Amino acid sequence: MRLEGQGEEITGSRAADSRGSAPPDLPDIPNGPVALPIAHDSSGSQTPAERFAEYEAKVEAAYRQEAVDCGCERVREVEQTVVTPAMLRIEAEDPDRHLAGFENRLKGKDRLTEKVTNWMKAQPDLKPDDAFGLVKDAIRYTFQYPDENYSQGVEADCARLEEAGFQRGDRQGTSEDD
After folding, report:
1. CA angle 84, 87, 91 (to 5 degrees)
2. Of 12, 59, 82, 137, which has the fewest beta carbons less than 10 angstroms from its beta carbon?
3. For residue 23, is it within any domain?
4. pTM, 2 dp
5. Residue 154: partners with Cβ closer than 8 Å, 6 or more residues away
């Protein structure tokens, strides 16, 4: 038996034989040449290199999305079990300020995907998991202070965070930015 399609021929053990070996729910393959279905190409005729590039882009996008999905799951777990409980304890230590925008503490999956994609464009050899690790603000909190206590409040909360085991990183909106 021989199968033909898109310039290739399948013979021998790779060719199907319909002599009673197929389960009843599978279609019967007739003896003789069978044309394999040609994939519809909406953009016209593509070269093999173009088809490969399209396939590669789809695989890379799926791999990137899997890395973002897994990263988001890990971030959510750490946020719920470690970071948010600590932030709520620290918030309770000073009644003169509060956490603002608490419901927005996790960056959205679409925005994380965008950031991972941007890191991978900037560093083409970077793997999606590593690119996810470079996103600095997957979890973020904002303390809102009265104007008259702002500098002292920031410094006191930074000390509280360090005492709780967190490390100082980039800060936005502090007097150090001036």
Report:
1. 140
2. 12
3. no
4. 0.62
5. 143, 145, 171, 174, 175
